[in-house]
Amino acid sequence: MTPLGVPVSDLAKVAVASLVGTSSREHLHRTHPPQTAFFIARKIYAILTHPLRKFPGPFLCGISNAPYSYWFNGGRRDFIIKDLHEKYGPVVRIAPDELSFATPQSFRDIYGFRTAPHSTFPKSRFYDGSAFSSYGVHGIITARDPAEHAQMRRHLSHAFSERALREQEGLVAEIVDEFVKIVGNMGAEGKVVDFEWWLRCCMFDVTGSLAFGRGFDALKNGGQHPSLKFVVEAMKQLSLIDTMTRFPYLGKVFALFFARKLLKLLRGSAMHEEFALSIVRERIANPTTRPDILTRLQENLPPNTRLPDIQLATHVCEILIAGSDTSNTTMGTVFNYVLRDPSLYSRLTTTIRSHFSSYDKINALEAAKVEMLRSIIQESMRILPPVPGALNRLVPEGGDTVDGFFVPGGTYVTTQPLATALSPLYFDEPMKFKPERWERSSKGKDILEASQPFSLGPRGCLGQNLAWMEMNTILCKVFWKLDLELVNTDMDLHRDSKLDSLWDKPPLLIKVSERRD
Question: Which residues are heme-binding (predicted)?
């Protein structure tokens, strides 16, 4: 067994296969023994002279992508990398050409704005498999070229401006009220509510309404919408896609032995793309002043020009995925930790219910003033980062420095959100839920910039103000109107969650009733 509990034999077999390829190795051994020895010698020489050889990490990670893919497909990659940082330090070699960092400065160096003679680190190949990518079209999240992305961001910023947020508040409130009503009715019927699922449905409807200009009725239909099903399933397959990128020959094996599963995934992708395109074309054919993202995307363009239908569809598809799951994750984390602490729950509900004289008075502007709630949300995003996975970047040719370490060009680098935010180097009692560390009056020694849930720099989350508006509004309305009690108290978010590019979380079972005071 390795120090991380992974059978050495399993990893070693995959590592050897990835180094030389099973069929070619057997052929060389049977027909040309001298060539076999020469081939292996070349591999050993490459390992010993590799420019990343001086960075610490497990030996197998230095010779093969197998450990990384093993962890990724097992759903525990980021927890394992967190353990590696605790063992090896602030920088760890997690694959032959990939380094993981876990420091606040590395956030700034890898993702932040860089001035000459330094250049921005572009996104890695991981972002190539998005919706419509087979057509050569990229959206605001997956565009790898910095210049292309900068142009997109300037145009899309109008859809997330202060003016846009004010106009979109009514669209959000309408769906939030429906969510509160549905879970309240389920509680009145004596049903235990899985907030993990129903928050997902709520945010899918909210983001769909804002992005596509129409809701998906996921709340009304209990999530029975093909696009929601596809998004949930597709997000669980990104580890497989990443593995096939690292080991191209595995794609042929997968297609051979799992043809039915692959066909189902491809059909789901095609249906999702067709659905998005049909909505975009319908909106273009029937113009409206509805204050959603599609409307804003068609504004502020040069005269007699418009974005191609497929480009609009790509943007809104990416916004749908990024905007729905991340907010859902954070709010679920809020409910999980607040309901486990009776004192915190009592103080929060008292604060919210005294701040608003009635349910109808709750709006985004006033909800943002509840500082206790803001601290709870910030701590929730720290203890379970909404985007836990590696936001890989590629070091430009010639190399550059990351937190004092010179990294050769062509190296993939990332700052691990989970490893950094849960490090005792930066947070006192990092595994404890302590919202007070975010209060303005706090004099703790926590290094708060070690938590970057929205990332930073030129690729920082464009929709973070929208996310805050959504979360503040939903949480204020739920805690104002309903009394809640956590049922599955034996559930542990860190232990029971798995992750691909986003979280696959356990059910969050809650008893719901109308407030009694």
Answer: 461
């947070």: which residue's tokens? 427
Report the domain count for the chain. Answer: 1
3-state secondary structure of 307: coil
Return the amino acid letter for 454: F
DSSP-assigned beta bridge partners for residue 414:
100
Which CATH number covers residue 312? 1.10.630.10
pTM of the model: 0.88
What's the rounded mean pLDDT across residues 66-88? 95
In angstroms, rounded to a whole number, what is the distance separating the alpha carbons of residues 162 and 168?
A: 10
Instruction: Please check whether residue 355 is in contact with residue 369, taking contact to mean a CB–CB distance below 8 angstroms.
Output: yes
Q: Is residue 342 in some structural domain? A: yes
Q: Is 291 helix (H, G, I), strand (E, B) or coil?
A: coil
Residues annotated in a binding site: 461
C-beta separation of 294 from 213 below 8 A: yes
* Within a domain: 86: no
Q: Which runs of E-coded beta strand occur in 37-165? A: 91-95, 98-101
Contact 252, 24 (CB under 8 A): no
Binding positions for heme are 461
Instruction: Return the bridge partners of 514, or none.
Output: 482
Q: Range with the lowest mean pLDDT among 404-413, 441-450, 486-495, 506-515? A: 441-450
CA distance 263 to 498: 25
pLDDT tens for 350-362 read 999 999 999 999 9
* Domain containing residue 502: 97-514
- SS3 of residue 509 by DSSP: strand
Q: Tokens 């928050």 appear where?
A: 199
Q: 327-330: which pairs have CB atoms within 8 A and are 24 or more residues apart?
A: 327/203, 327/386, 327/467, 327/470, 327/471, 328/196, 328/199, 328/200, 328/202, 328/203, 329/384, 329/386, 329/502, 329/503, 329/505, 330/377, 330/380, 330/381, 330/384, 330/386, 330/453, 330/467, 330/471
DSSP reduced 3-state for 116: coil
Say if residues 123 and 393 touch (Cβ distance below 8 Å): yes
Question: If 0-12 CB within 10 Å is exposed, 13-18 middle and 19+ buried, where does residue 440 land?
Answer: exposed
The answer to the question of residue 26 being in a domain is no
